[in-house]
Amino acid sequence: MLKEKAQRIRQDICIMTCQAKSGHPGGSLSAADILAYLYFQEMNVDPKNPKNPDRDRFVLSKGHASPVLYGALAEKGYFPRAELENFRKIGAMLQGHPEMKGIPGVDMSTGSLGQGLAAANGMALAGKLDKMDYRVFVMMGDGEIQEGMIWESAMAAAHYKLDNVTAFLDYNGLQIDGPTEEVMALGDVAAKWQSFNWHTIEINGHCFEEIHAAVQEAKTIKDKPTIIIAQTLKGKGVSYMENQVGWHGNAPSQEQLDRALADLCDIVDAGGAE
């Protein structure tokens, strides 16, 4: 089921960006397996009660990858799938970045890179103070962790022992201006987070078994937050987009969309993600 959900989300990503003639397909496609796992297996959420105070929270810190979140929310039933057709249209609900006041299921408005982890920390700290059991998940991009605010937030999460925070790093190696190692080298990412007193787990971000094991391990960690460093492939599932930096913020044409959907259908027929 998760493989099919992830591929359906990928199809929606390509369709949305093609119809809008804008958007960010590459980093949305790389995150699809993680969001499919969170929304369809792990998180305690209910589309019929999106503001339930006991729900788990999700923050898409790399807010430009909104198509992956919208695809997951529509597939989960938060709003009619027909809304996806209006992606990025003036006056429509689904704009280029997630907006918490107008979109059911969106827990935090994001788009300015570097801010999502701080918001997730606030939600997690509130849960601690209110003695509630919900967990907070946040997804960051690898280019995003070049932002200083990420490391202030990393310090804060460790200081307040926010073991109810689980962060994902979508580590696809590419950002808008090129490879992360050429734009601003990240170095030993796991060692950096460990030095901030985070528990670190490194996985293949397209393997559901590894995603599952990492999330379950994070639940056992006490008195410190966890980051799951997920090695992913930008443009995952669409042959001509994979590992191509040009697809960070370009939309496919109708002809390219047809090729993308053919690729994604082939993957579903062959058994989906790893």
Give the secondary structure arrangement, pairings included:
Blueprint: H1 2-20, H2 25-29, H3 32-42, E1 57-60, H4 66-76, H5 116-129, E2 136-141, H6 148-159, E3 165-171, E4 174-175, E5 178-179, H7 180-183, H8 189-195, E6 199-204, H9 208-220, E7 226-231, H10 254-270
Helix pairs in contact: 1-3, 1-4, 1-10, 3-4, 3-9, 5-6
Cofactor: thiamine diphosphate
Pfam families: Transketolase_N
Protein name: Transketolase
User: What's the total helix number?
Assistant: 10
Structural class: alpha/beta
Percentage beta strand: 5-15%
Q: Compute the gyration radius: what is it? A: 17 Å
Tally of domains: 1
Shape: globular
| End-to-end C-alpha gap | 13 Å
The strand count comes to 7
Adjacency order of strands in the biggest sheet? 1-2-3-7-6
CATH superfamily: Thiamin diphosphate (ThDP)-binding fold, Pyr/PP domains
- Which architecture name does CATH use? 3-Layer(aba) Sandwich
Order of helices and strands: HHHEHHEHEEEHHEHEH
Largest sheet: 5 strands, parallel
Which residues form runs of ≥5 with pLDDT under 50?
Answer: 268-274
Kindly provide the name of the CATH class: Alpha Beta
Helix content: 40-55%
Output mean pLDDT: 96
Protein name: Transketolase
InterPro entries: THDP-binding (IPR029061), Transketolase_N (IPR005474)
Cofactor: thiamine diphosphate
Pfam family, one: Transketolase_N
Mind explaining what this structure looks like?
- The protein has 274 residues and is an alpha/beta fold.
- The chain has a single domain, classed as 3-Layer(aba) Sandwich (Rossmann fold), CATH 3.40.50.
- The protein is 41% helix and 12% strand.
- The protein is built from ten helices and seven strands.
- It has helices at residues 2-20, 25-29, 32-42, 66-76, 116-129, 148-159, 180-183, 189-195, 208-220, 254-270, and strands spanning 57-60, 136-141, 165-171, 174-175, 178-179, 199-204, 226-231.
- The protein has a five-stranded parallel sheet, with helices on both faces. It has a two-stranded antiparallel ribbon with strand order 4-5.
- Helix 1 crosses helix 4, helix 3 crosses helix 9 and helix 5 (116-129) runs parallel beside helix 6 (148-159).
- The chain is globular and about 50 Å long.
- The model is unreliable at 268-274 (pLDDT under 50).
